[in-house]
Design goal:
Layout: H1 3-9, H2 15-27, E1 32-37, H3 44-54, E2 59-65, H4 67-74, H5 83-91, E3 98-102, H6 108-114, E4 118-122, H7 133-138, E5 142-146, H8 154-162
Length: 164
């Protein structure tokens, strides 16, 4: 395995290993940012959003929906890319420090584990609508909604492919 692929794989955590890593970062006083999503077809909107999220702290953790979770949320035709592909593509991004898969439809249990300093979502979400916002706010953290880049979405890409 190449050194680069080894570095990519090192960003993919189990829940137990992530908990240990988070404890270390927190002990060093480092700011942890958390977001989540399906990230089915990686596009410029994702890259912009994730780099904006990363700019808010020293470490960005991304929770990624499992294939079963994506299917429940998006329908039987999704995910388009399998879990390993989605994980490895995201892990190759410099702005992401840790990735972890969650099986549930929301990342609530993962947010309870991490208790990030900053919780972010994209779009028009109000802070109180973001899953886990109560946990983060109760622990002195911030909750933010970052704007989407118009015209970039997996759904739009999927429709464009279908209409071709």
């Amino acid at each position: 395995m190449s050194a680069f692929l080894t570095k990519i794989k090192a960003k993919i955590f189990t829940w137990n290993l992530l908990e240990e890593q988070v404890e270390e970062w927190k002990a060093n006083g480092e700011t942890i940012v958390f977001t989540n999503g399906c990230f089915d077809i990686l596009h410029y909107g994702h890259l912009h959003y994730l780099s904006e999220a990363r700019s808010l702290g020293q470490h960005l953790i991304v929770g990624i929906n499992s294939a079963a979770s994506v299917k429940r949320l998006k329908g039987p035709h999704r995910p388009i890319n399998d879990e390993a592909t989605r994980l490895h593509l995201l892990a190759a991004l410099l702005c992401i420090d840790a990735l972890v898969v969650f099986e549930e439809d929301t990342p609530l249990k993962l947010i309870e584990l991490v208790v990030p300093d900053i919780l972010v979502k994209g779009g028009d979400w109000q802070a109180h609508q973001i899953v886990g916002s109560d946990i983060v706010l109760a622990n002195g953290g911030k909750v933010m909604s970052l704007p989407f880049i118009e015209g970039y979405s997996t759904t739009n890409i999927e429709q464009k492919i279908k209409n071709s």
